[in-house]
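User: Please predict structures.

Assistant: First:
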Amino acid sequence: MRTDVTWDPGREDEPTLHPAMHHIAGLGGYQDRKRKPCPKSLWRGLQRIEDMAQVFGKLRAMERNDSRPP
């Protein structure tokens, strides 16, 4: 897996607060129905993002050490 790729989204690709909040809440189980996302789904979504960041960090460290997973 390549992790040396850089990406600059540019100004037009940056989400505003409303869609960003819905994307994060979606990771936490929010299904985009009639109600706004609750704090619990936002919290769970942020936890999932933190989990993904930790995995990505470990993969980068393994790539730098040129080691393979057990």
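Second:
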Amino acid sequence: MALVRAWLVLFLIWAACAGLTFWVRSMSRQHAFAWLRLARWLALGAAMALGLAALIIYLF
């Protein structure tokens, strides 16, 4: 069951990436760069929040 769940998660990640790629490719160049810039900042914020959460769990 765990193997099926792992394959399902991998498929969902692949489908999300494919959908995001098609969505970005359908935009104008300037609009796509604006969304990608926002996504970069959101990913950076999520990584920092995850690092902070790991640090809090490790220290306390």
